[in-house]
From TrEMBL:
Lineage: superkingdom: Bacteria
Entries under InterPro entries matching the protein: Motility-assoc_lipoprot_GldH (IPR020018)
Protein keywords: Lipoprotein, Signal
PROSITE patterns: PROKAR_LIPOPROTEIN
Stated name of the protein: Gliding motility lipoprotein GldH
Length: 164
């Protein structure tokens, strides 16, 4: 009976994970010892994409209970093949007012899928790069947090803006 339930659970899990038709690109970088150092910039190279197709872009954050904050400040850069750079300062809520994590997950590890840009078209031929760096500061302090604890992985995801 237990084997049957485990088998059914495994089938449901596989079918849910495999039904991700909108995913175009999904890559993660692991942070050693779940520590994101202030000077550590994570860079993702985007594969060649259809220039006529609009895409939605996401930053994915995996954190554990060692993360001390309810929000997250990031600095992102999108570098175009022609050298142009678009730089953004982003703020995301990571926890509800009661302290519970807003991300999904079954254990103390939570994943947050954070909107970055929507309806983006990659019109230039060549490599695009997305760079992400944390910009956390404690209230009232001038200098940033040197070591941001509890972030285990940072990912970048691209999805079709129109369902396929």
């Amino acid at each position: 009976m237990i084997k049957c339930k485990l088998f059914i659970l495994a089938i449901v899990f596989i079918s849910v994970v495999s039904c991700d038709n909108n995913r175009v690109f999904d890559e993660y970088q692991t942070l050693p010892a779940s520590v994101w150092k202030k000077d550590k910039t994570l860079t993702f190279v985007i594969p060649k994409l259809d220039s006529l197709q609009p895409y939605n872009l996401f930053i994915n954050i995996r954190n554990n209970d060692d993360y001390e904050y309810s929000n997250l400040f990031l600095i992102s850069e999108m570098k175009f093949p022609n050298g142009k750079i678009i730089k953004d300062t982003l703020e995301y809520q990571m926890a509800a007012p009661n302290g519970s994590w807003l991300g999904t997950g079954f254990s103390d590890l939570k994943e947050s899928k954070l909107w970055y840009k929507e309806q983006v078209k990659f019109l230039e031929d060549g490599d695009y790069e997305i760079s992400i760096q944390h910009a956390m500061r404690k209230n009232g302090e001038v200098y940033g947090v040197d070591e941001l604890l509890g972030i285990t992985e940072v990912g970048f995801r691209i999805e079709f803006a129109i369902n396929h």
